[in-house]
Amino acid sequence: MLIVIDGYNYVHRVNGPAVRKGASMDLLQRDFLEKCARYKKARSARITVVFDAYASFSPGRHSENFRGIDVVYSKEGETADDVIIGWIRKRPAGLIVVSSDRAIIDEAKLRGVSFLTPVAFAEMLSSPAYEPDEEDDYPDTPRPKKGNPRKLPKKVRKAVKGIGKL
Q1: What are phi and psi of 68, to 5 degrees?
Q2: Of 112, 70, 66, 67, nearest to 89 (Cα)?
Q3: How far is it, in rounded angstroms, from Cα 46 to Cα 63?
């Protein structure tokens, strides 16, 4: 599962009053990325956040990693919407898009890609199920394994099934 989020769209929709009062966009952006990192840790989902760098002078896309979250900045003359729509067109399998932009939602519907509004995703991020607990402070603590120990791993089962079709 890959969750692709329209970063500034999320920040403006969820923190609208704070943005209008002149809150620091850097602080709001960092707070949002921190919440995404906690969600990723709890759910083991791949998350990519795309921010507009429309007015920048960067000739190419710039990406960085923030606590396991891929953060992508669009290139000069490109919007985050353009980047996300391009990804929707390339690989719709397992993709979930978080945005309230009409163009992105229309493209997602057209390609059969799941989507969430920023407000709905914010509710998921603030859910107590995704808040870290005491165990998360100790990453070396062994955790009980899940699943049937007698069953082969899913990748191996798929490989055997594929070989059986030959």
Answers
A1: 90, -5
A2: 112
A3: 15
Q: What is the pTM of this model?
A: 0.70
**Residue 149 pLDDT grade (very low, low, confident, very high; cuts 50, 70, 90):** confident
CA–CA distance, 83 with 93 (Å, rounded to integer): 17
Distance CA 125, CA 85 (A): 24
Helices (H) and strands (E) in the chain, counts: 7, 6
19-42 residue pLDDT tens: 777 778 888 889 999 999 988 888
Q: Which CATH fold would you assign to the domain 2-140?
A: Rossmann fold (3.40.50)
**E strand or H helix at 164, and its extent?**
helix 154-165
- Read off the pLDDT of residues 52-84 as tens digits, 9 standing for 90 and up: 875 566 677 778 899 899 999 888 888 899 999
The domain spans of the chain are 2-140
SS3 147: coil
> Alpha-carbon distance 103 to 80, whole Å?
11
